[in-house]
Structures
1.
Amino acid sequence: MSPARPEGLPAPADGALPTWVGDAASAGRFGVYLHVPFCTVRCGYCDFNTYTATELGGGASQVAFADTASLEIALAARTMREAGYPERSVSTVFFGGGTPTTLPATDLARLLGDVRTTWGLDADAEVTTEANPDSVSPEYLRVLAAAGFTRVSFGMQSAVPHVLATLERTHDPERIGDVVGWAHDAGLQVSLDLIYGTPGESLDDWRTSVDAAVAAGPDHVSAYALVVEAGTRMAGQVRRGELALPDEDDQATKYELADDLLTAAGFEWYEVSNWARRTPLDGPGTPATACRHNLAYWRGDDWWGIGPGAHSYLSGPMHDPRDDVFDTPDTPDTPDTPDAVASAAGLRWWNVKHPRRYAAALEQGHSPAAGREVLTDADAALERVMLGVRLREGLPIADLGPTARRNVAGNVAAGLLEGRAAVTGSAVLTRRGRLLADAVVRDLTDD
């Protein structure tokens, strides 16, 4: 991502946006992310911005969440309009968390209705919610489908009881086939999320999980290597020697096994950690069952994040905006010097993390934004490489700097980039390159 600004620039209390954010808006699509910060149980490996119901009350409670999030949707529409952002309907909506399905299905339907009323939805809009397998019923999924949801992403993680226990997941692995069937019966596409590299997970355990995921019949599978984040319960267990993490070779072997099994079952990788089932109706390129919302992130489209801790991004005009980048109400004066902002390729901001602070700001008529950063052309170019090279479609070599373009040949020779794709002008990772993607990115961004 862009160079770190730990606290960012101040965000104006009313959420006003600089006037340049809409200048390039018609170039891409617009998505909405809604962060629902509630979980029934907080898993030991999780460092997401989540809370159990007993931790919160008042305006931050699960009962009040839909009312609070509706206030931010209205604020978002108003500030975009005042900044001159052109009217665009929403192409993708994603409810993440936390576990969005801890809320009643009618609350999720209501929030989707607010998005539809506020911006409009594309006729083929993709609307996804994350869910735990033990948080839905057939009726719940039918309500979502009737409201306009098109996908559900279940946190399967593993099919092996002792692995789920280490991850502190509470669902019965035998339930996966049921929930996938219920979702398909309701007319929803299904994604299953898996985690590999859990302490104590053998290669046979991992094979069992991937085989079970394939047997359940999803449209899409994600497989992520476990990362033990500082401050989590699992990090404490590792530090005390209670759990031992697998080495990088173990994780690489498990990734390759997943790729083999998923490919044999008719799935195609379209991003390093994501596989989509190709259907007879698909043309060339990315399968239709790929997650279009996540593709929007990787391709640099605009989105507004609703909810505690949610991030947002709006593209900029790729010009020097020093005349108006800081001319928003309640923003402290910033020296208008050549060093201020060389050029703006976009604006990113993030909400306060705690649900109580988030709710209090909106109830007072203020923006919940905690800070923001202006992306320069150089920042945006770096992000295009970091995200774009992870995609099966690859990255246009012509978009790289001179040194990076010269490094392509070396990466082809090392077996990290596909030679045939490079000849036709694209940097596309080989499977070995997917395992060493960070190293490839360094070679393609060192200019």
Note: Residues 62-82 form the longest helix (21 residues).
2.
Amino acid sequence: MSRRNIITLVVMALLAVLPPVFYLTGNAFYLDLATRLTILAIAAVSLNLILGYGGLISFGHAAYLGIGAYAVGIPAHHWLYGGLESLGLATTSGYVQIPLAIGVAALFALVTGAICLRTKGVYFIMITMAFAQMMYYAIVSIEEYGGDDGLVIDSRSELPFIDLDDPLQLFGLAYVSLVVAMLIVRMIVNSRFGMVLRGAKGNNERVVMLGFNTYLFRLTAYVIAGAMAGYAGALLGNFTTFISPEMMDWGRSGELMFMVILGGTATLVGPVIGATLFIVLEEVLSSLTVYWHLPFGLLLLAVVLFGKGGIMGMLRADKEDSE
């Protein structure tokens, strides 16, 4: 078994065991922290598909998180206060909310991706951020859903055999979802589709000359990543029971990018490690000083500048040096 696979198994085993142990010993805070980082890790894994393996630097990925969260909050809001009954969207059923989150996020990714992928480089970065900000301001302008103040979700999604009001069951669903997301990405990148996607990242012109329509391959990956992030958003809405436009602000997209880069791009477990370190450092430093953003930013900057390939890249470098 390779060193990378061992690291993946160890990280996922610790993430599966430690939070429930902390919760059962009276430390519920750590379970909440683990649930949050697990959900954000799903979004980071989805971003890694297009960023790490596809070379597409999207600065608007948090928009899909927000879309997924509002796909839970809006039907729950109308279920309580009325409206949208004719469309069957006034509900707290997870059978409606979760597919809605995935579907709307995928549709938004399809429409915006079809335009964004006509550009490249810094233009691609800017246009993805522009579309995310358009969605941000669109939600802010809708007063019925709280506008800039956000919207409280009074009732979590109802699913058979799973009670999302139980913190352990919610964490279990998030953890299983993370494992499934990682397996999906692994299957994609190791398929012929993934080979074309990675080849386009390295030399797009050469892959096009081989007869592949890399635009369609990239657009498909972009939609898949958006749908996965939308699902993560649905979980995040159920976890926080409060949603706001801030979820889809460009700063949140930057945080997701940092998670991927911190852990290591184009690696299976890198986004999970990055999300874990990001959330833990944020909690620890913010408990020490109100000026925690400065040391936090310096630490991230040091990893980006001196840790080639993120944490996973540093581990590979250590292995090569020992050999």
Note: The beta strands are 151-152, 242-243.
3.
Amino acid sequence: MPAEWEPQSAVMLTWPHPGTDWSAVLDEVEPVFLEIARAVLRFENLIISCEHVFRLQALERELNQFAVAHGLPGRVIGVPAPANDTWARDHGPIALRNGEGKTELLDFSFNAWGGKFPWEKDNALNRHLASFGSFGKTPLVPVDFVLEGGSLESDGAGTLMTTSECLLTPSRNPDMDRSAIEAMLKETLGAQRVLWLNHGYLAGDDTDSHIDTLARFCAADHICYVGCPDVSDEHYSAIAAMEEDLAQFRQADGTPYRLTTLPWPDAIHDEDGERLPATYANFLIINGAVLVPVYDVPQDNQALDILRRVFPDREIIAINCRPLIHQHGSLHCVTMQIPEGVVNP
């Protein structure tokens, strides 16, 4: 499984529409998607799927005008396709580099994080994209195993990182224990090692502690993770235990990882008082840049400064994702990168 920092051909977005839970706040959330789309187009191709054909046509016109104005024509790929929701990270295809160095796209089963929400349209979306030629000649391979992209981190060299709370949840693959799931990951994704985080969670997160909200590979020897220094915060004990897990992790040669702590944003609540899952770990690495979610809180600038030091050769682009967390996800959750050589519009 390639690392996210490896060359990409495109980023995939599944656009919100009135038939999704975004319907009441489309005016607030669509500008966030547009900001992500424009940022991606500066560096690579963009695949947009949308259930509403007229909205898709308008988006294609608007974003093609942006691309042409920046001397980047032909980067927008629009596909009419039904969708229950917008979390492309989890219903999108997971890339695999085979033994010949060629890319395959694996179409794992998606059941909305253990059947929490409707999922049938999302589970079929990759097949719709493939049927429109969005992935060029790259094969889309079905895999009879429930797995979301947000639950995995790859260093691109045979090591995967995940959380036990997510992958061992019985509502995903109920007949498989930890050893069976690890064997499946190794066989299917060519992994040599799986690092399991046994602690850590994020209030308001529907995914059962996806790794991309907590800890991320930034290089093969470097992990960024969220820290919670406030002893009065409900997360303090779990995040402290997670930090101990990370300190015990070793690279394949036995060397400890370099660890960088990301700040803990001030608590954000919705109108009903529910805490929302704001996290700076939910950044997206693309060609030449890192898109970083910010939330209009004092810790935003500190997070951006840290990630500038972590990724000195990439442009750091802040995207205000406060509207996204009202549906319990953030920037990385609504995107899925597609490796180099797949998309050729």
Note: The chain has one domain: 8-339.
